[in-house]
């Protein structure tokens, strides 16, 4: 059985997103640069990295006087777990309820609906 992934606070998720966008493991200064829109102190980033490592989301490897940080949890795995949680919590576990809420809120364009139809047809055939 798969281990259940814990939901991350927004600040930790921002660090994970920076790691997921990277082509390779990042140093802390590289993470600082990737997170410049957050205007966090270096100590904040270090604390967030320590929390993520403790939760098993990232690993660090010594490199010179610093560390390289890499994601252990893929973005796809995290998004799948979050989607199941969201669907269960807000929509009674029913995808139809979620799509209906989007439609009722005028959040689906005709193009979105066509993309959903195409995806569902592929899913029926087992092509996704």
Automatic annotation (TrEMBL):
GO terms for biological process: negative regulation of DNA-templated transcription. One of its GO terms (molecular function) is DNA binding. It comes from the Bacteria. SUPFAM superfamilies: Winged helix' DNA-binding domain. It holds the Pfam family Penicillinase_R. Keywords: DNA-binding, Transcription, Transcription regulation. Belongs to the BlaI transcriptional regulatory family. This is BlaI/MecI/CopY family transcriptional regulator.
């Amino acid at each position: 059985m798969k281990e259940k992934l814990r939901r991350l606070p927004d600040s930790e998720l921002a660090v994970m997103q920076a790691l997921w966008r990277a082509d390779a493991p990042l140093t802390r200064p590289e993470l600082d640069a990737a997170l410049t829109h957050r205007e966090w102190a270096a100590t904040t980033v270090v604390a967030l990295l320590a929390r993520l490592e403790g939760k098993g989301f990232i690993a660090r490897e010594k490199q010179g006087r610093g560390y390289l940080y890499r994601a252990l949890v893929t973005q796809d795995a995290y998004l799948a777990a979050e989607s199941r949680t969201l669907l269960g919590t807000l929509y009674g576990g029913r995808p139809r309820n979620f799509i209906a809420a989007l439609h009722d809120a005028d959040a689906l364009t005709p193009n979105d609906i066509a993309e959903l139809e195409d995806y569902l047809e592929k899913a029926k055939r087992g092509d996704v």
